[in-house]
Design goal:
The chain is an all-alpha fold and 123 residues long. Helices cover 78% and strands 0% of the residues.
Amino acid sequence: MASYRDLLVWQKAMDLAQGAYSLARLMPRVEQFRLTAQLLRAAVSVPANIAEGRARTGKREFLNFLSIASGSLAETETLLMLAVRTGLLPKADVVPVFRTAEEVGRMLTALKQSLRQRSAAQP
């Protein structure tokens, strides 16, 4: 793999961040420096940590950054759910972005498991 840009999980995480930006435009202006800002930081952190981890030299470092990306993903999902529960965003608009988040989560889990298995197999 030549670059983080070749990773399907990074590409899907970029879709997630883009979706978060689309939802942010629907949020009330009063939330601009509160929930909206936190949602965008969390969503952007997912592909950013995947990219940074992939650019590191070791598998252990990559795994660490993938774990950080997983944490940011959980934060993103939580903020999306909160936005719906508080009536800041319509559920119908959030569902496609949430589905992307779930897919990214499955992909991150699979990539972490694969890296751990490869590390365990090496002497």
